[in-house]
Amino acid sequence: MNIDGVAYRSVWVDQDDGWSVRILDQTRLPWTVEILRLTHEDEVAHAIRSMQVRGAPLIGAVAAYGLALALRRDASDAALERVAAMLGDTRPTAVNLRWALDRMLKALRPVAAAARAEAAYEAAGAIAEDDVETCRSIGQHGLPLIQAIAARKPGKPVNILTHCNTGWIATVDYGTALSVIYQAHDAGIPVHVWVDETRPRNQGSALTAWELGRHGVPHTVIADNAGGHLMQHGEVDIVLVGTDRVTRQGDVANKIGTYLKALAAWDNDVPFWVALPHSTLDMRVRDGLREIPIEERAADEVLNTTGRLPSGEVVTVRTAAPGSAGANPAFDVTPARLVSGLITERGRCDASEAGLLGLYPEFAALAAE
């Protein structure tokens, strides 16, 4: 990612001391770019729960570094298992978190305690590098979709609707669905992005719009419920979203509101594509609607909103009627039948077990469980 001419990733080890971990505080964006220094696994857990870091691939990488931080102080078998379990409990829906911690445990259990801390940093770094290359490849495999649309409407921009944030700051770098958009833009294809605000935390209007603006991508922020209207009037060529978990039959768990976009896209014959890294696949789960746990976040996120006053002060204010209760499911599940296809680092495929196993044959044993 590039912020005001400076290259960043979304998580990195501090070069000054060689062991602490740095992240961008996403709760302060888009108003302030603030870098946090994490030195303890409890700080990492808080950053994930509070959404100082968010995005399924990123929280997996940050949790991996959190385990490495813990093993600097106590590298025993008991500490390894205890901290991994604690970090794994911070967010329930995104499978990348559990995937990253399982990968860390598999790498570190055989290592002697004296060598574990160093091995943990190496393993966490490998997870981060894997995510960067994976997201770059996702963009490459999604690019032909945009090129094909552009060829059908020469001289006109490709209008893309996205939901939530799937960019640099949801991953270690590049993004998932936004990786496709960035690579199309960088290839000289005229694109325009409709950015859903993504209530209640406004990851679209706050984070995606901020990212696209920094990269110079034309975009327009819209209310969450405007997408269907735009599709009815031919103003959307393709919907590109990310995901926090994909089941073996191709069901997609993503930020609340994704299902409604998929329904509108289906009704208006608009392609609905989902971009994901391999770490988001959960081949042990078949029926997403019945089996994926949906995180219920604090009601205050729905009842209140945060913004900046003309003075520059950032404040949180109550927007719901006094005395009203709030419900805040953070994700919903889009059935595979509504998904045009999946974009992965290995290519594109149908949202189906056969499609996924065509790209990931090594997961056949998991799918059979």
UniProtKB/TrEMBL annotation:
Its source organism is Roseomonas haemaphysalidis
Q: What is its EC number?
A: 5.3.1.23
Functional description taken from the UniProt entry: Catalyzes the interconversion of methylthioribose-1-phosphate (MTR-1-P) into methylthioribulose-1-phosphate (MTRu-1-P).
Named from the GO MF annotations, one term is: S-methyl-5-thioribose-1-phosphate isomerase activity
At the top level, the lineage of the source is Bacteria
* UniProt binding sites for substrate: 54-56, 91, 203, 254-255
Entry protein name: Methylthioribose-1-phosphate isomerase
- EC class, as a word, reads isomerase
Q: Which UniProt keywords apply?
A: Amino-acid biosynthesis, Isomerase, Methionine biosynthesis
Q: Which reaction does it catalyse?
A: 5-(methylsulfanyl)-alpha-D-ribose 1-phosphate = 5-(methylsulfanyl)-D-ribulose 1-phosphate
- Which gene carries the instructions for this protein? mtnA
| Keyword Isomerase among UniProt keywords | yes
As for family, the record states: Belongs to the EIF-2B alpha/beta/delta subunits family. MtnA subfamily.
InterPro entries recorded:
IF-2B-related (IPR000649), IF-M1Pi (IPR005251), IF_2B-like_C (IPR042529), Initiation_fac_2B_a/b/d (IPR011559), M1Pi_N (IPR027363), NagB/RpiA_transferase-like (IPR037171)
Q: Which residues form the active site?
A: 244 (proton donor)
Q: Per the record, where is site Transition state stabilizer?
A: 164
> What pathway is this protein said to act in by its record?
Amino-acid biosynthesis; L-methionine biosynthesis via salvage pathway; L-methionine from S-methyl-5-thio-alpha-D-ribose 1-phosphate: step 1/6
